[in-house]
Design a protein that fits this description.
The protein is an alpha/beta fold. The protein has three domains: 4-75, Elongation Factor Tu (Ef-tu), domain 3; 79-355, 3-Layer(aba) Sandwich (Rossmann fold); 366-454, no CATH class. Helix content is 32%, strand content 24%. It has twelve helices and 21 strands. The strands form five sheets. The protein has an eight-stranded mixed sheet with strand order 9-16-15-17-19-14-20-21, sandwiched between helices. A seven-stranded antiparallel sheet has the order 1-7-4-5-6-3-2, with no helix packed on it. A two-stranded antiparallel ribbon has the order 8-10. The mean pLDDT is 92. Residues 131-350 form the ATPase F1/V1/A1 complex alpha/beta subunit nucleotide-binding domain. Produces ATP from ADP in the presence of a proton gradient across the membrane. The V-type beta chain is a regulatory subunit. Residues 9-63 form the ATPase F1/V1/A1 complex alpha/beta subunit N-terminal domain. It holds the Pfam family ATP-synt_ab_N.
Length: 458
């Protein structure tokens, strides 16, 4: 029989303290009734003897020491999951906010997920096409990969996320089922409306499940949103055999919520005031991507984070980079030139790219073209630096060609419209058009046979 506890011992921000508790467990969900009417949900985050510290998801507004009744549920937070959640919109703790009613399902899963034996993981293969040349051509997203986007305040990462949701697919000719789970944390109302409207108008909302935590929602909800999104993704991938792309924005809001709750608990801060366990906490989310042996589906992640002051050494991007398999970096200078998406090619990489492209996946020349474009664009930087010292007129003919190549590369290859959905073949063909601007002897990263096949081709 469930025991109900009357009153609280202490209220501190989003945390409350309950004394005299028996048989409580870490991470256990509690149900709280405030003033006999308002229902709230909390989670036990620390236990000292008979004292339990509870995190209240909806915040502690209206709660007092004497007007709250607390009941322990005996289980961690769970969510009912179903394939019918695709096409629906939920708040940060998984409650429907689209007016279409509750989700009815016999399957309830722990939002913290199940520990995954590393031996049971399969190596990520094959690719997910985004329709964006700078990603598909140079930092290809592989199924089962976690590939973050490092952005900055004011850069168009929201538009980029929306475009990826609209255009992402398993590539030409695939008959496998593909869907997207979209989790937004700490977003403003206008940004949430932008995502909803964009997905509906483009007709992709039917295969997208949205979880939205608004900026004015309680900060504790922000810590639950990505876990709920990933729980649904794992169910759809491993139980329903679907290939799921999870987009989480903005992980900086998540980390700052973690810092705020940690400060309320009185924990000793680490770098920039973040808790010392920020690395392991982020890893508990990112490592839920992958492919499991014996299961048909896959979970692929694109976490998006805004770097404070564009500092890539800040703890959030720094630790994210350690855990994930590469990064896509947005650049403010390209954005100021009205180049969209403003992806900075040189610091961006996909460590698993080589295993999901080439013959049998995209096209045989893909890896060589990517290597050569990287190499040539790096030389563009050298030519620009030299031109800033001696002037463009004094450059050698080859250096002038590199300057011309750089301008065309940024405007034609990196740059594309918000609604332009390029195939991998189109991306590679644009790459060859740009490489033909340079003398053949400069293309030293491409196999001779591939060069003979594509360089003279018009």
């Amino acid at each position: 029989m469930a025991v109900e506890y009357l009153g609280l011992s202490e209220i501190n921000g989003p945390l409350v303290v309950l004394e005299g508790v028996q048989n409580a467990a870490y991470d256990e969900i509690v149900e709280m009734t405030v003033a006999g009417s308002t229902k709230k949900i909390g989670r036990i985050i620390e236990i000292y003897g008979d004292k339990a510290i509870i995190q209240v998801f909806e915040g502690t507004d209206g709660m007092a020491l004497r007007n709250t009744h607390t009941r322990l549920t005996g289980h961690p937070m769970e969510i009912a999951v179903s394939a019918e959640m695709l096409g629906r919109t939920f708040n940060g703790i998984g409650e429907p906010i689209d007016g279409l009613g509750d989700i009815i399902s016999d399957v309830r899963l722990d939002i913290n997920g199940q520990p995954l034996n590393p031996v049971s993981r399969e190596y990520p293969r094959n690719y997910i096409r985004t329709g964006i040349s700078a990603i598909d051509g140079l930092t290809t997203l592989i199924r089962g990969q976690k590939l973050p986007i490092f952005s900055g305040n004011g850069l168009p990462h929201d538009q980029l996320a929306a475009q990826i949701v609209q255009q992402a697919s398993l590539g030409e000719g695939s008959d496998e089922t593909f869907a997207i789970v979209f989790g937004a944390m700490g977003v403003k109302h206008d940004v949430a409306d932008f995502f909803r409207r964009t997905f509906e108008e483009s007709g992709v909302s039917e295969h997208v499940a949205m979880f939205i935590n608004l900026a004015n929602d309680p900060v504790v909800e922000r810590l639950i949103t990505p876990k709920i999104a990933l729980t649904l993704a794992e169910y759809l991938a491993y139980e329903k055999g679907m290939h799921i792309l999870v987009i989480l924005t903005d992980m900086t809001s998540y980390a700052e919520a973690l810092r705020e709750v940690s400060s309320s608990k009185g924990e000793i801060p680490s770098r920039k005031g973040f808790p010392g366990y920020l690395y392991s906490d982020l890893a508990s989310l990112y490592e839920r991507a992958g492919i499991v042996a014996g299961r048909h589906g896959s979970v692929t992640q694109i976490p998006i984070l805004t770097m404070p002051n564009d500092d890539i050494t800040h703890p959030i991007p720094d630790l994210t980079g350690y855990i994930t398999e590469g990064q896509i970096v947005l650049e403010r200078q390209l954005n100021s030139q009205s180049i969209y998406p403003p992806i900075s090619v040189l610091p961006s990489l996909s460590r698993l790219m080589k295993d999901g492209i080439g013959e049998g996946y995209t096209r045989a020349d893909h890896q060589d073209v990517a290597n050569q474009l990287f190499s040539c664009y790096a030389k563009v930087g050298d030519a620009r630096a030299l031109a800033s010292v001696i002037g463009e007129d004094e450059l050698s003919p080859t250096d002038k060609k590199y300057l011309e190549f750089g301008r065309e590369f940024e405007s034609r290859f990196i740059g594309q419209s918000h609604y332009e959905n390029r195939s991998v073949t189109e991306t590679l063909d644009i790459g060859w058009e740009l490489l033909r601007m340079l003398p053949r002897e400069e293309l030293d990263r491409i196999d001779t046979k591939i060069l003979d096949q594509f360089y003279e081709k018009r």
